[in-house]
């Protein structure tokens, strides 16, 4: 947790003020029993009403000062801890945004969500407690012991017996609780993952009538977390009764032995009352520490999990000295590229070499698992090649900044993704300063203007989370419009026409031809009709190139391509 304290630096002035205020509050609370002792011994016993009013008024003033310090310290500690949480969440989010897809696969989406929300909240809550209790408890404990000793040294021996018992109980319970807190966070990840899968896959779950199965799966994960939480809470619940027993027995012992010392004339009644108050302050300071021990183990686990994210460095980083464009605008070249996913036994693609020029459309086709999506993911550098190189504008993509590289690319993913907001905002996501005319033009080219015009608010129609209020084909067309409005040098369409009917597909490809005349266009498709007019078709088979050429050339020279065509088209269509 110490590594994360650096995020408190912007709020260090507030932290210093909190510590000063807590010190003043502690001093006021330590001074109050002494004033009460003076009132009893010098005012009540002697019957001096004036002294009682004088010291009592001062006592009220000290108590009011302590109250003001307590309120101010609570406000500032809450403000500092909230600012710390905000800054930590922002830094963690920014760090995760730089991850490559490999790091996301490694840590897991559900775990990253839990770490960014629940884990940071745990640390934030503990920080508030630390600024108040962790600072106050030692002051009250040490100050109480000193003041109690000043009242009666021999009676302090009672505390020498009770305090070690209290400390031992806290240590034993804390040691048993730490592994359970760690287990709780892991099980919370599991609940988050199951819940996320249920929410995102609700249509599949209902269509296959698996609601009961998913409910059972969630209940299993939920009960697993609940059982662990019950064990932890039972363990921590035992702490308070133990402390109260020790506290009450200590009070009885003080009254017993204090009464004997008063009867022998070694102690005043007021001193014994003050001694009881100091004993209570000492014991309650340990109770405050015990509350910290309840929260710190869980916060320590959360801090470890957050540090794991910060310690995870992205495999893909920008070069120290990025290269500038040498004039080969929009050209994409693969030179002997081989790539393997982490932990895979076989490469996903092997010895891939080809060239894509501006003004040309290159299509990539192949069976499932042949490496089509893997290949195009190397162009925007979602992954780095294992060997060989990918050149964009004549420069190895590893020698360009990621921002400059991706600024050249308009990427339409295989699974169309829309964000919460209006249709216009989703299209403008590709270009922040796009005008209304540019948005309408992009929608028209993407064959989306027709269904947009039929919506209640047109381009101002709200898109639900995940685009659930539009069809699959409409989502794909809006994703294509988002890419078109950017006017990039390189267009990548990863099987983004699959949900379109043949008529819309044909219209869209015809409109794209004029719009992307000067750009390099890459189309990944399963349908032969989508790529039949491409200038260059690359056929992949088991991660290797089985053939490159135009449609007629491949029909004659590539058996793999011929099999794909014959499985989709009739003999008349082929002819």
Feature tags:
ABC transporter transmembrane region fold; four-stranded antiparallel sheet; six-stranded mixed sheet; alpha/beta
Mean pLDDT: 85
| Secondary structure category | alpha/beta
Number of helices: 20
Outline the biggest β-sheet: 6 strands, mixed
Task: Describe the oligomeric state of these chains in a short phrase.
Answer: single chain
CATH architecture of the domain at 90-311: Up-down Bundle
Query: What is the CATH fold-level name of the domain at 90-311?
Result: ABC transporter transmembrane region fold
The radius of gyration over CA amounts to 35 Å
In spatial order, strands of the major sheet run: 6-9-10-3-11-12
Give me the count of strands. 12
How much strand?
A: 5-15%
Highest CATH level, the class of the domain at 90-311: Mainly Alpha
CATH superfamily of the domain at 90-311: ABC transporter type 1, transmembrane domain
Walk me through this protein's architecture.
The chain is of the alpha/beta class and 575 residues long. The chain has a domain at 90-311: Up-down Bundle (ABC transporter transmembrane region fold). It is 63% helix and 10% strand. The protein has helices at residues 12-44, 49-97, 101-107, 109-151, 157-200, 202-207, 211-237, 239-263, 269-311, 372-377, 402-407, 423-428, 436-445, 449-453, 472-484, 502-515, 528-531, 551-557, 559-568, 571-574; strands at residues 332-339, 349-356, 361-366, 387-392, 395-396, 409-412, 421-422, 462-463, 490-494, 520-524, 536-541, 544-549. The strands form 3 sheets. The chain has a 6-stranded mixed beta sheet. Helix 5 (157-200) runs antiparallel to helix 7 (211-237). The mean pLDDT is 85.
